Amino acid sequence: MSGLLELFDIVDATDRVVGQKTRSWVHRHGLRHRAVHTLLFNAREEIFLQKRSPSKDLNPGVWDSSCSGHLHAGETYDEAARRELGEELGLTDPIPLRPVCKLAAQPETGNEFIWVYLGESDGPFCLDPEEISEGRFLRISDLQREIRVSPDHFSPVFVHLWSRLRHQFLLRDAR
Fold it and tell me: In this structure, what DSSP letter does residue 13 have?
């Protein structure tokens, strides 16, 4: 869907809907809005990351959550998480998703309230080339090292999200 036509709910500091505007308007004016990020792990407990397409308007060509996206106007967080799995990764058969935390809208999140979901899938994935240039699974310890050495290779929102959640995943990698 074209960014000019996408309608987002504008929300207040408590995540209550107070209006609607187009994606471009919301981003241009830095208004609070909503998004989801899903982290997928495979059977080996490795995390899947996507590399954002170089044509993306925000953070092109950097690594990001397995799947992420904005909520459309009137959409719930759960609905958006499922929709994005289909649109970005081609996962149309439902997989269990577990909401793990909600991040507050602030500069580090692009002024987005973000619900983070966890899921399990070994793929195969059918990556949308307009959204994603490539994807890969990697061990948590490798992800930690890459973020430490080259944080600019990752979306700033993902780095912020990971800094809040990494401790619960470090235990996975140690098993």
Answer: T
pTM (2 decimals)? 0.91
Checking DSSP bridges between strand 33-41 and strand 63-64, what pairing results, if any? unpaired
Query: Tokens representing 33?
Result: 């809005």
Q: Is 160 helix (H, G, I), strand (E, B) or coil?
A: helix
Name the residue ranges covered by the structural domains of the chain: 7-174
Query: pLDDT (tens digit, 9 = 90+) per residue, 115-129?
Result: 999 999 998 999 999
Fold for the domain defined by 7-174: Nucleoside Triphosphate Pyrophosphohydrolase (3.90.79)
Under 8 Å between Cβ of 23 and 6 = yes
Closest CA to 105 of 49, 166, 40, 26: 26
Spatial contact of 32 and 10, defined as CB atoms under 8 Å apart: yes
CA–CA gap between residue 24 and residue 4 (Å, rounded): 6
Quickly count: other Cβ atoms within 10 Å of residue 146's Cβ: 15
Q: Residue 169 — very low, low, confident or very high, per pLDDT cuts 50/70/90? A: low
Residue 89 CA neighbour count, 13 Å, CB half: 32
3-state secondary structure of 117: strand
- Give the list of residues 6+ apart from residue 8 with CB closer than 8 angstroms, or none: 20, 21, 22, 23, 26, 33, 34, 70, 71, 72, 73
